[in-house]
Amino acid sequence: MRYERFLELGRGRWESFGEELDRLERRPSDLSLQDLERLSIDYRKILHDHALAGARFPGTRAAQSLQRLAIRANHLLQWGEERPRLSPLHFYGTVFPERFRGLAGELVVCALLMASAALLGLTMTAIDPGVGTSFLGPEAIAGLERGEIWTDQVRGASSLFSSLIATNNMKVAMTAWAGGVIAGLGAFTVLFFNGFMLGAVVITTVHFGMGWALLDFIAAHGPLELSLIVVTAAAGVHVGRAILSPGVVPRSVRVQDAATRSALVLLGCLPWFLVLGLVEGFVSPAPTVSPFLKIAFGLLLEAFFLLIALRPPRPAAASLPARPSAIS
Amino acid sequence: MSQALPTAERPGLYGLDNIRLDVPIALAGSRSLAALVDYSILGILAAAVITGVLVLAVVLGLFESAAVGWLFALGLLGLFALEAGFFAVQEIALSGQTLGKRLVGLRAVASRGGRAAPFALLLRNLLRSLDLLFGMWFLLFDPRGQRIGDRLAGTMVVHELPRSVESDSVAKVPAGWGPPRIQIVETLLALLDHLAPERAEELSRRVLEQAERDDPGFCWPGGPSTSETTRLMASFGRRRTEHAPREGGAGAV
Lengths: 328, 253
Fold this sequence. Notes:
Oligomer: heterodimer
Order of helices and strands of chain A: HHHHHHHHHHHHHH
Number of domains of chain B: 2
Largest sheet of chain A: none
Strand order of the largest sheet of chain B: 1-2
Shape of chain A: elongated
Number of helices of chain A: 14
């Protein structure tokens, strides 16, 4: 076919297709189903014209125009996988528990790692108290010697402290999750560091006879805070595991699927950090609330989270599609 | 960079019927520029939040009251929301673009070239902190320019393409002319308005001479005062200008 003939035959179609694309880009809601069907048929024709132009008339204006048109149409007509809009009720009632249960193996590993790190921190600090000092700093140690615990500083600045804690914890959670991408190493590091520090701090305060004061402070928020760190780290490890052993599907597909699933767990945990921030800022340092009440509150909070996370699947519950665009 | 590679080695994607599309993938340079713009805006916004909180505390005389703690707490949350959501919210609201990307002409799309789903855009930005450390290596060495966030979310960043279909193509071609010569004429026609008049005349004359040699009678003779550029446009039937119809010639459609 001669170039002129090719142009003559196709030009009208290309121009009207371009105009339709403009319309689709500006006001997609204006297009009817028939319009979209026609567009998809025309798109196929454009693709074939583009392939012909690329093979027979490479580098010409027609080939360049068709290339642009084909790429634009591909972009506008091919949508990424659209997730259904989720209400918080549906998310926490169905999606979050489903994703949470999918992390069972990683959760056990992460919980064990954190507990082991705490035990290690506890043992090492018992052998060498300097380990605890390096975490708490000389001022906090001097305070403990005087019978004062550093957590008393929170009183009087609860609102600011709440916000600081909530944002810091959310950053730690996001770092633990993102760190999981490096074959799980980042998540393991966050777990180990937090576990080790917990063990070291606990034994140091006990050593100075302030263990009860520390328990009084951490009882209300501690259980859930530790759980959330383990859960977000497990979500990160889930991605790292997919990178290391993708199984029978291509690694990129497996990793994308794991990232999507685990990101939903991370996003589900973030609001809990806001709740924790308020508890840690207002309830934990409150001298008027008895330690037993704080322990009960902390356990209740933890039980509430676990009740949501471990909610059994409903038989008729609609589950989210697992990235069909990536797998198909 | 991608333009210099042979087609088989160039990163691309495949449309319907496995037809290859050479998408203009954005690499380290343009993406760094967009990021620079975005982080500058983010810095300005963060400074605005801090200044706003301080000014509000002074204006309302809150420094002596307990309410100042709440104001600072809100400011802190605002800064966190800004840091965590600045990129994701923009990309979701602007179909894969941030202000920086829009300025540089980039867009985050799905790895198959389609529109990226909002969740994918959110996911690619959740890994931004990691990408600030390692992302540049991926941008430099990955032919598709996919940083860690892009790989996990199944997205990539491409250059925006002009919306309109260009109509600079010629309508008539001398017999025996192949794509390279057509390309030369079309490029010359597109550049005519930007060349110095004498240079445009000279190049037009040379093209017309070649066309006449290859296909006698193809070129429109014009009148005694007709310029070479006018003859060129008329002979090749440039569509945009709708010049005089060709009178005879072997290359007629």
